[in-house]
Amino acid sequence: MQHEQKGASQPIVIRVTGELDMDRAQALRVDLGEAIEAAPGSAAVTVDLSDLTFCDSSGLNVLLGARLHAQEAGHVLRLAGPPRQVLNLLEMTGAIALFPIDRTPPT
């Protein structure tokens, strides 16, 4: 996972690669928590999923928890470039309506 911020007015981006499963969920939970806490003002926090190859329910749980954390902190958690498997997971669980989704990852 990679965390970057391009400037005070730019969104914070967390890039997730590979598989997001029970083994990696806690690391993402920590990274997202730190990013949300570090986000200035009402800046968005974007999770770039374009290089994610798999996400299970533990990964989805992390995203849902981070969404609530961001909302409580006055931020929006966005998902960018989710692959079809992640979109299917979000649709099947009804969670797709909870996230702003950008079809392409941030540049």
Give a written overview of the molecule.
With 107 residues, the protein is of the alpha/beta class. It has helices at 22-38, 57-72, 84-93; strands at residues 2-5, 12-20, 45-55, 77-80, 101-102. A five-stranded mixed sheet has the order 1-2-3-4-5. Strand 3, helix 2 and strand 4 (77-80) form a beta-alpha-beta unit. Helix 1 runs parallel beside helix 2 (57-72). The longest helix is centred in the first third of the chain and has 17 residues, at 22-38.
Question: Which tags fit this structure?
Answer:
107 residues, globular, 5-stranded mixed beta sheet, 40% helix
Tally of individual helices: 3
Globular, elongated, flat, extended or rod-shaped: what is the shape?
globular
Main-sheet strand order equals 1-2-3-4-5
Q: Beta-sheet strand percentage?
A: 25-35%
The overall pLDDT average reads: 90
Order of helices and strands: EEHEHEHE
Q: For the terminal residues, how far apart are their CA atoms? A: 16 Å
Low-confidence stretches: none
Integer-rounded radius of gyration: 12 Å
